[in-house]
Amino acid sequence: MVERRQPILVSEAVSRVMNYAKLGEKERVSLTEAAGRYLAEDLIAAHDVPAFDRSPYDGFALRSVDTQGARFDHPITLEVVGAIGAGFVHKDTVEAMQAVRVMTGAALPSGCDCVVKFELTEESVDNGKDLITIKKPFETGENVSFQGEDTKKGTILAKKGTYINPGISALLATFGYSEVKVAKKPLIGVIATGSELLEVDQPLEDGKIRNSNAYMIMAQIERAGGEVIYFGQFSDDFDTCFNAVKEGLAQVDFLITTGGVSVGDFDYLPAIYEKLGATVLFNKVAMRPGSVTTVASFNDQLLFGLSGNPSACYVGFELFTRPVIQTFLYNGTPHLKHIKALLGEDFEKANPFTRFIRGQLDYDVEGRCIVTPSGFNKSNAVTSLAETNVLIVIPAKTKNNERGSVVDALLVEEVQGSEWPWDKVVLSYR
Amino acid sequence: MVERRQPILVSEAVSRVMNYAKLGEKERVSLTEAAGRYLAEDLIAAHDVPAFDRSPYDGFALRSVDTQGARFDHPITLEVVGAIGAGFVHKDTVEAMQAVRVMTGAALPSGCDCVVKFELTEESVDNGKDLITIKKPFETGENVSFQGEDTKKGTILAKKGTYINPGISALLATFGYSEVKVAKKPLIGVIATGSELLEVDQPLEDGKIRNSNAYMIMAQIERAGGEVIYFGQFSDDFDTCFNAVKEGLAQVDFLITTGGVSVGDFDYLPAIYEKLGATVLFNKVAMRPGSVTTVASFNDQLLFGLSGNPSACYVGFELFTRPVIQTFLYNGTPHLKHIKALLGEDFEKANPFTRFIRGQLDYDVEGRCIVTPSGFNKSNAVTSLAETNVLIVIPAKTKNNERGSVVDALLVEEVQGSEWPWDKVVLSYR
């Protein structure tokens, strides 16, 4: 009467999904639009940085050889033959016993090999000539930022798939990218199913709840770097849902449905996959929450059948949909960022399946990461999702996980992510 | 000849700036536009969650009292008088020896006080009547999600100033916020100064560099939750820069300039503040990089005079401008997120001033945070900014900071931030 499904390991489920992950297209955007996107090509230094020898201070550029005899009781005097600010070049080659006043960032004048800071000189004027007096010797190269000292031309500064943070924006500007090739965002369709769902602006009715999953998933898609197209919410009616899925698929790269994947009387997604001719990759995963998460492939598209239960929906997205989106964006580390952390409180429940517990990451005074379950932890607890910034992994077949024990944790806010598998040991557990 | 400035402590500088921080206005946006913004009002549960007693499983709702005599060798039989899916309500009160077939999420029918999962029942039909047989007793409340079990009406679920992550989006939907009051983004003007600056699309010239600071700062502003208006880049010319600053101020909440704040021959910002009649809060901070960072107030506006040096510019923004932006967004923890971490490598330089070193945060297998300086660490090293996700704080007057010692670190990517002061001890150091 009730369909019996065979659960597969989380690691196996992720592998099956990732077999269908694909790289997306590239598009050009302006540098100001590039922030928060992902590089579609390696960022290579187009020239040395600095591109020329320059002064890192305000001072006088000169020839170190001229200072070799200088001492406190035997000062030497040089003539100041020019003055340049950053952005300017001194035209003539500087000769013996000459100096050029230079501001921070100015190109080192030809002939000079060191810079002396203002405070180590005394300035004077004699007979209309500007002079400086120096009381100690300087070495060649002293106070010079040499060409290529920071970065050599040709260095790969960031690989494709790198999230464009403010530092990357600065690099792109440095090397002249007024336009940048970024990964095109995958278009992800969202369909919510469930006769219990009210629209957000509808008043509460007995037996019904407002549709929170669709808005949560849309925000998760955007956080993961995708673009959303929302097709709306539908009652549990086979034909309505089938048509919504079929029409939705035609417009998107990947399609997410929420609800309808369990084995209840009104869970129509399994039948919809069948009528569509989609291949079900799995429909039961050895995890909590989200054990009924279903993923199917149809041509080169993936259909993510997430649970109607908010926590299960959340976890299913982060484990299975996020890496597909991030792969589309060329990120070679597309999975949730994996860390080890100390469990912040006892977790005593037995685990037939691996648990992904919503939690909060804190840091203690000794530099350790502490992860603590977010309060009430029934899988329908939408409120605990608000404070979640980490999923705590409690392996299957364990119990009495004690406060202070080292556990695996997955950071949901971290943009660059981790490679797969996070940790074979943990995710192979049953 | 060279102006002597008196450095103040970082903590003092932050305090002076924060005296001028102000709360911004509120605006209504649609729920889908709210993701990534900050709540302008506390989010309060408008009703209990769940709003009614409901079934967390597929099964049969019934009266526990009817099952009290049930045993394996003494099954009891109930009549199934209805079936409801999620979103529906069973109209009649369930009487003795009756049951209702319920799907996950369905409202518990009146009269029932527990739910029995399908797999613990046997179904049959007798004389046109649907029956179930049960072989064990159940308790009142068993398998029921009670009204208010997750959240009670009136609970504050998130305070104003909270970043709207996917979990908050779900909560907003749950409580019917099709529109959300969010903090209006402060409008931050950016002016780059420096005769050495080329536009991003200009070819390199001897002695010149492309303007990377403006694009970096614009990305930092957006990351911090502000909105950017870019006024362009200007050569080191007093009148040009003065007019740009004066006209810019009239259009923004806060104004950032890059360059021109040092004591070089072409550093005009000090004179500009004077002509404008702005009050300089400080022009020298006991920190590296960024010691010449200058902040001035003009009416109720702040002018952030950041260094033209990329690393100094970056750090100056994160320490002084970010908390002003985040306060405008109602965030009560507006400063960079502060953690303790282990230093990943020896840092042997002496520190006359507190250093904020660009670095990377990693995690070790024992749950500890490891922070490592990002390669080459001269203050002009724009390339190291690309991989920076943390600023490592090395206190003044220390040297030989050893690998493995516990240091303070500030997370630049973390949206919710920390209170001030991060840690009085560290930031009071000289």
Automatic annotation (TrEMBL), chains A, B:
One of its GO terms (biological process) is Mo-molybdopterin cofactor biosynthetic process. SMART domains: MoCF_biosynth (SM00852). One of its GO terms (molecular function) is metal ion binding. Belongs to the MoeA family. Catalyzes the insertion of molybdate into adenylated molybdopterin with the concomitant release of AMP. Gene3D superfamilies: MoaB/Mog-like domain (3.40.980.10), MoeA, C-terminal, domain IV (2.40.340.10), Molybdopterin biosynthesis moea protein, domain 2 (3.90.105.10), Molybdopterin biosynthesis moea protein, domain 3 (2.170.190.11). It catalyses: adenylyl-molybdopterin + molybdate = Mo-molybdopterin + AMP + H(+). Keywords: Magnesium, Metal-binding, Molybdenum, Molybdenum cofactor biosynthesis, Transferase. This is Molybdopterin molybdenumtransferase. The keyword Cell membrane does not apply. Pathway: Cofactor biosynthesis; molybdopterin biosynthesis.
